[in-house]
Amino acid sequence: MTQSGSGSIALEIGGLSPGDQHDRLVLTGDAVLNSTVAVELIGGFNPAMNDSFDVLDFGTMPDLPTFNFDLALLDSGLMWDTSTFMNDGVLSVANIGGGNTDYDDDGTWNLGDLNLVLFNWQVDGGSLDPQVWFNSRPPAGMPVGLTELNQVLFNWQLPASLAVVPEPGTLVLLGMALIGLIGYHVRR
User: Fold this and answer.
1) Of 86, 9, 22, 25, residue with least CA distance to 51
2) How much is the mean pLDDT over the chain?
3) 125 with 144: CB under 8 angstroms?
């Protein structure tokens, strides 16, 4: 199957059961896909965090596919995770960074979260293992970096339910305060 950039794959999702409650496109042989994936929620269905939908199965793709997404809006605090879609055809639901849970899903922002950030520094979010980096991973094309480090440091030892997302200017203010402290101690 070959589909050009002007093509579209329209999918309806009304539950978790593939084929019965949500569409699933199964392709055999080689597939060359360059299209828009449009997802519509039907029947009043609202996906929950960590729900996943295997909507596209394919044999092989000789060329790296190019997808644009036109995705249905989700409830507040949730977003579509398309980071593995090119590899496995699965759309997942994740929380928006700073939501209700921490990166390693142990209930507290701590050393486990810091380790995930530091050991994956500058790794593309799309290649992070979802079984290790449970929540709020950067999307495909975005490397792990200061945003994730700030999330851990500003929420250190807080229960995940109390997590906050620091304002971008906070890092600048913190840097200025550290420079001031260093300058004060150097003069003494």
Assistant:
1) 22
2) 77
3) yes
pLDDT at 188 over 80: no
pLDDT at 176 > cutoff 80:
no
More confident residue, 75 or 46: 46
Helix 146-154 with 168-187: angle, nearest 10 deg: 70
The domain spans of the chain are: 1-96, 98-188
End-to-end Cα separation, the chain, in angstroms: 73
Instruction: Give the residue, 75 or 115, on which the prediction is more confident.
Output: 115
Residue 129 has pLDDT above 50, yes or no: yes
Query: Residue 16 is encoded by which pair of tokens?
Result: 């978790």
pLDDT given at position 98: 42
Contacts of 116 (CB under 8 A, 6+ apart): 103, 104, 132, 133
